[in-house]
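As a representative case, we now present a protein record of this kind.
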Amino acid sequence: MEEESELVTGEAVVLDLRVAKLASRGVAMLLDVLVQGALLVGAIMLVVFALPVDDASLGVTLILVLFVLVMIGYPVIFETLTRGKSLGKLALGLRVVRTDGGPIRFRHALTRALAGFFVDFWALGFLGAVAVIVSLTSSNGRRVGDFLAGTVVIRERVPDSGQAGIMMPPGLEPWAAQLDLSRLPDELALAVRQYLARYTELRLEAAEALGYGLAQQVAERIGTPVPPGMPLWAYLSAVLAERRNRDHVRAMAAAPAPQPVAPHSGYGPAYPQPYPAPQPFAPQPGYGAAYPAPQPYGAPVGSWPPAAPPPPAPMPGASSAEPPTAPRPAQPESAPPPVENPFTPPS
């Protein structure tokens, strides 16, 4: 099982790391043992068949040498090149780091491998009993090799709670956009993020000392020193915020384009429906028969002028003896004679 653990660095910085305990480390160790066994069988087959020797003692010596090289060289090479990961740890998301949270180097990997071979796993034929007992009694799940090398195994696949809170200092966007962050390692970025998350909880002297050391490491990797007058926290915050923004842009660019949703059956152009062929127009009864077909061009059209139309038929009920007379228009009445105004003053 794993649990949260606080590791205190030499600069009084508290790091919240998820320490890997016996269960996950045991599974990673089992995977590594399987890989080592496959390598060892291949090496023995190479010695026996490809390089036959007549002396039996020489053959046994070569097999013992190969056994030691595989059991020690395998973890040393992988943990040195990958900064704390073997194939088993890589599969389970584990990493070996120093107790101050920094990446391990060759001497740490060699110390862990030698202690693991001669003390933890193969000492006195206990086949890992020493490592199990020491790991169960340790608060951070460390074995003898971890105590001798000053290391601890942590889980890397944890939710990132601190990176989202890192903001770009105002006015530093154009300056940060010109930085070369391709050589900034993840381990150093993790240390800077932990430092910025705990900045307000540190003593002023410890915060300045640790910030100066981290800023020097970052400047060495990105090739841009701290500008004069810029606070260390602002420099580190701008670097991490710009790194996060670029990672977000790359992730968005690598994301596949959304696919169009296929319409349901019977809807849309993906499912064309057959339409019936147009039928010729059939005239309805009572329409079209009263209109004769058009005559061809040049056919006689009759005499000119055309014959007078027949008189209209009489209205029903009217007498045929005398045609009805039209009403006379009303005559205007004659104007009355003018009347003398009796109130006209005399001349």
Notes: The chain has ten helices and four strands. The longest strand covers residues 3-8. Confidence is low (pLDDT under 50) at residues 9-14, 158-164, 342-347.
